[in-house]
Amino acid sequence: MLQTFGTDLAETELPNDVQCTEQLLQAHMERHGELKAELKLAGSQGATLLSCIREPASKNPNSKLNPDELENILTVERLLAQLDETEKAFDQFWTKHYLKLNQCLQLRHFEHNFREVKLALDSLIGVQAKLTVIGDNVARVEQLLRERKQLEERGQVGTGDGGGCPRPGSGTA
Protein backbone atom coordinates (compact mmCIF):
# COMPACT_ATOMS: atom_id res chain seq x y z
CA MET A 1 0.00 0.00 0.00
CA LEU A 2 2.85 2.38 0.83
CA GLN A 3 4.63 1.61 -2.39
CA THR A 4 1.49 2.22 -4.45
CA PHE A 5 0.76 5.48 -2.63
CA GLY A 6 4.38 6.60 -2.97
CA THR A 7 4.28 5.89 -6.70
CA ASP A 8 0.99 7.79 -7.01
CA LEU A 9 2.47 10.75 -5.16
CA ALA A 10 5.63 10.76 -7.25
CA GLU A 11 3.65 10.62 -10.50
CA THR A 12 1.05 13.21 -9.50
CA GLU A 13 0.78 16.12 -11.90
CA LEU A 14 0.29 19.41 -10.14
CA PRO A 15 -3.06 21.07 -10.92
CA ASN A 16 -3.27 24.50 -12.53
CA ASP A 17 -5.92 26.06 -10.31
CA VAL A 18 -6.53 26.73 -6.63
CA GLN A 19 -9.58 24.49 -6.18
CA CYS A 20 -8.05 21.38 -7.78
CA THR A 21 -4.81 21.89 -5.86
CA GLU A 22 -6.73 22.18 -2.57
CA GLN A 23 -8.71 19.03 -3.39
CA LEU A 24 -5.56 17.10 -4.30
CA LEU A 25 -3.80 18.23 -1.12
CA GLN A 26 -6.81 17.21 0.98
CA ALA A 27 -7.09 13.80 -0.71
CA HIS A 28 -3.37 13.12 -0.23
CA MET A 29 -3.51 14.21 3.41
CA GLU A 30 -6.43 11.86 4.07
CA ARG A 31 -4.66 8.93 2.40
CA HIS A 32 -1.47 9.75 4.30
CA GLY A 33 -3.43 9.69 7.57
CA GLU A 34 -4.97 6.33 6.71
CA LEU A 35 -1.60 4.80 5.90
CA LYS A 36 0.00 6.22 9.06
CA ALA A 37 -2.80 4.60 11.06
CA GLU A 38 -2.14 1.29 9.28
CA LEU A 39 1.57 1.56 10.10
CA LYS A 40 0.80 2.26 13.77
CA LEU A 41 -1.61 -0.68 13.86
CA ALA A 42 0.97 -3.02 12.31
CA GLY A 43 3.57 -1.85 14.86
CA SER A 44 1.15 -2.38 17.71
CA GLN A 45 0.23 -5.84 16.48
CA GLY A 46 3.90 -6.73 16.09
CA ALA A 47 4.66 -5.56 19.63
CA THR A 48 1.73 -7.61 20.93
CA LEU A 49 2.94 -10.67 19.03
CA LEU A 50 6.45 -10.21 20.40
CA SER A 51 5.18 -9.98 23.98
CA CYS A 52 3.01 -13.10 23.46
CA ILE A 53 6.04 -15.08 22.25
CA ARG A 54 8.12 -13.88 25.23
CA GLU A 55 5.33 -14.34 27.77
CA PRO A 56 6.10 -17.89 28.94
CA ALA A 57 9.72 -16.99 29.68
CA SER A 58 8.78 -13.74 31.40
CA LYS A 59 6.25 -15.44 33.72
CA ASN A 60 8.56 -18.21 34.82
CA PRO A 61 12.23 -17.27 35.29
CA ASN A 62 13.21 -20.94 35.06
CA SER A 63 11.48 -21.39 31.71
CA LYS A 64 13.62 -21.17 28.60
CA LEU A 65 12.52 -20.44 25.10
CA ASN A 66 12.94 -23.23 22.57
CA PRO A 67 14.88 -22.57 19.34
CA ASP A 68 11.68 -21.97 17.33
CA GLU A 69 10.51 -19.34 19.83
CA LEU A 70 13.93 -17.65 19.77
CA GLU A 71 13.85 -17.61 15.98
CA ASN A 72 10.30 -16.17 16.04
CA ILE A 73 11.42 -13.41 18.41
CA LEU A 74 14.32 -12.51 16.13
CA THR A 75 12.02 -12.51 13.09
CA VAL A 76 9.41 -10.30 14.72
CA GLU A 77 12.09 -7.90 16.03
CA ARG A 78 13.61 -7.71 12.54
CA LEU A 79 10.21 -7.06 10.97
CA LEU A 80 9.41 -4.38 13.55
CA ALA A 81 12.75 -2.68 12.79
CA GLN A 82 11.97 -2.82 9.06
CA LEU A 83 8.53 -1.40 9.72
CA ASP A 84 10.09 1.45 11.72
CA GLU A 85 12.57 2.22 8.91
CA THR A 86 9.79 2.07 6.33
CA GLU A 87 7.71 4.50 8.37
CA LYS A 88 10.65 6.91 8.69
CA ALA A 89 11.29 6.80 4.93
CA PHE A 90 7.57 7.33 4.28
CA ASP A 91 7.53 10.31 6.65
CA GLN A 92 10.51 11.88 4.87
CA PHE A 93 8.92 11.35 1.46
CA TRP A 94 5.59 12.71 2.69
CA THR A 95 7.22 15.82 4.16
CA LYS A 96 8.79 16.63 0.78
CA HIS A 97 5.60 15.88 -1.12
CA TYR A 98 3.44 17.92 1.25
CA LEU A 99 5.83 20.86 0.97
CA LYS A 100 5.72 20.63 -2.83
CA LEU A 101 1.90 20.54 -2.87
CA ASN A 102 1.64 23.36 -0.34
CA GLN A 103 4.02 25.51 -2.39
CA CYS A 104 1.99 24.69 -5.49
CA LEU A 105 -1.14 25.84 -3.66
CA GLN A 106 0.55 29.09 -2.65
CA LEU A 107 1.62 29.62 -6.26
CA ARG A 108 -1.93 29.02 -7.50
CA HIS A 109 -3.26 31.55 -4.95
CA PHE A 110 -0.65 34.06 -6.11
CA GLU A 111 -1.55 33.50 -9.77
CA HIS A 112 -5.25 33.90 -8.98
CA ASN A 113 -4.65 37.12 -7.04
CA PHE A 114 -2.34 38.41 -9.77
CA ARG A 115 -5.03 37.91 -12.41
CA GLU A 116 -7.54 39.79 -10.24
CA VAL A 117 -5.15 42.68 -9.66
CA LYS A 118 -4.26 42.79 -13.37
CA LEU A 119 -7.92 43.00 -14.34
CA ALA A 120 -8.50 45.78 -11.81
CA LEU A 121 -5.44 47.69 -12.99
CA ASP A 122 -6.42 47.28 -16.64
CA SER A 123 -9.84 48.68 -15.80
CA LEU A 124 -8.34 51.61 -13.89
CA ILE A 125 -5.90 52.33 -16.70
CA GLY A 126 -8.83 52.38 -19.12
CA VAL A 127 -10.69 54.86 -16.95
CA GLN A 128 -7.56 56.94 -16.44
CA ALA A 129 -6.91 57.04 -20.19
CA LYS A 130 -10.33 58.63 -20.67
CA LEU A 131 -9.42 61.44 -18.25
CA THR A 132 -7.75 63.58 -20.87
CA VAL A 133 -10.23 66.42 -20.54
CA ILE A 134 -9.04 69.57 -18.88
CA GLY A 135 -11.50 71.89 -17.22
CA ASP A 136 -12.41 75.19 -18.78
CA ASN A 137 -13.74 76.65 -15.52
CA VAL A 138 -13.18 76.21 -11.80
CA ALA A 139 -16.26 74.03 -11.25
CA ARG A 140 -15.24 71.65 -14.03
CA VAL A 141 -11.65 71.46 -12.72
CA GLU A 142 -12.95 70.65 -9.22
CA GLN A 143 -15.22 67.95 -10.65
CA LEU A 144 -12.32 66.44 -12.60
CA LEU A 145 -10.17 66.50 -9.44
CA ARG A 146 -12.92 64.67 -7.52
CA GLU A 147 -13.14 62.06 -10.29
CA ARG A 148 -9.37 61.66 -10.23
CA LYS A 149 -9.44 61.29 -6.43
CA GLN A 150 -12.17 58.61 -6.72
CA LEU A 151 -10.09 56.78 -9.31
CA GLU A 152 -7.07 56.95 -7.02
CA GLU A 153 -9.12 55.56 -4.11
CA ARG A 154 -10.39 52.69 -6.29
CA GLY A 155 -6.80 51.92 -7.19
CA GLN A 156 -5.80 51.86 -3.51
CA VAL A 157 -8.57 49.42 -2.54
CA GLY A 158 -7.21 46.71 -4.88
CA THR A 159 -3.60 47.00 -3.75
CA GLY A 160 -3.79 47.85 -0.06
CA ASP A 161 -4.08 44.32 1.35
CA GLY A 162 -0.64 43.03 0.42
CA GLY A 163 -1.91 40.68 -2.27
CA GLY A 164 -3.74 38.25 0.01
CA CYS A 165 -1.21 35.42 -0.36
CA PRO A 166 -0.06 33.73 2.83
CA ARG A 167 3.61 33.87 3.56
CA PRO A 168 5.48 30.57 3.78
CA GLY A 169 5.44 29.33 7.35
CA SER A 170 2.49 31.50 8.35
CA GLY A 171 0.31 28.48 9.01
CA THR A 172 -2.30 29.35 6.39
CA ALA A 173 -2.57 27.79 3.00
Number of helices: 4
The outline comes out as rod-shaped
Rg from Cα: 31 Å
CATH topology of one domain: Methane Monooxygenase Hydroxylase, Chain G, domain 1
Detail the poorly predicted runs. Answer: 159-173
What sequence of helices (H) and strands (E) makes up the elements?
A: HHHH
CATH class of one domain: Mainly Alpha
Q: Helicity, in percent?
A: over 70%
Structure class: mainly alpha
The overall average pLDDT, rounded, is 84
Proportion of strand residues: under 5%
In the CATH hierarchy, the architecture of one domain is Up-down Bundle
Largest sheet: none
What is shown here, in short?
With about 170 residues, the protein is mainly α. The protein is built from four helices and no strands.
Can you describe this structure?
The protein has helices at 2-11, 18-59, 67-129, 138-159. The protein is mostly helical.
List keywords for this structure.
single chain; 173 residues; mainly alpha; Methane Monooxygenase Hydroxylase, Chain G, domain 1
Helices and strands, with pairings:
Elements lengths: L1 H10 L6 H42 L7 H63 L8 H22 L14
Helix pairs in contact: 1-3, 2-3, 3-4
